[in-house]
């Protein structure tokens, strides 16, 4: 487990992380220290990762360290750094560790397609390719932003349907930065020779399974000349290419810092998944700045949640069970919203001080947040997953500092 915190304001940021790594092998469990955050040499940017430390069998820190060697000069913005990394990562030949679960995945998806078609277009077998394809693809438009695969090449419909935001500036900022990255990466993918290789590969994989899949889901044989069946194949390829998986191993990564033209820090979170049927899978989870968030957390953050929100999630669950035993769900919803609103308002009032802290104080607070998670882990687990020495990286627009705080001081 990992606890990484970035505390920041317009003047700078501190990124702090624990160093424990829990290893399980042959029935034995032990803890080894590892480095979870590092600063890019020659750039005002830091990187951290939590969750699955490997992508396609390669350590994520090694992947990012290798990429930083290709950077010749500072880039204009933090989103340019993320775009550059994603373009570089797309072109790498990593080991193919794809699990052979394609038949199971296709059966599950095609059963959903069958239900949708039976309910909405019962005469689908007589429809054109475009009619069936457009109907299936329309179902994808309800997917959320953080499920988009950064390497998808066909998201125009999604942009039009999902990303007009007027009343939430933080969400609008996330979409603005995220779509800038998506569009930049998409342009690269469309020009890359690998793109055609990926599409041809996934199409051949799908078609190799359709003989059994069509019999099991649509009660008919696979006909490569059938318009509606071709539409299902194309829709499935679009789903594979444009949406990141919702299950499986992933590395949760944070880029934080300044581009050459950035005057206050930004943070961008991405999830990197194991490649799916050799297709690269990366989603953009969040993009934010000190204007919208007082801190950014990666990994375990249950201890700090109570401080920053003013209430315990576990306590609310217990209270819900107690209240619902005597009152209606509508009454509980009203009470629940009132508790959350007042508690968070009180907590946020105190957090406003972060806007005025020096970088030295930001470093102190970030380290305390990591140590708070370590304390909670130590008290609740026989073998604490969070803990060890605390590594700290502090940056402003023009300065940087790294320091290690030992877990036990002599």
Automatic annotation (TrEMBL):
This is Unannotated protein. It comes from freshwater metagenome. The lineage of its organism: unclassified sequences, metagenomes, ecological metagenomes.
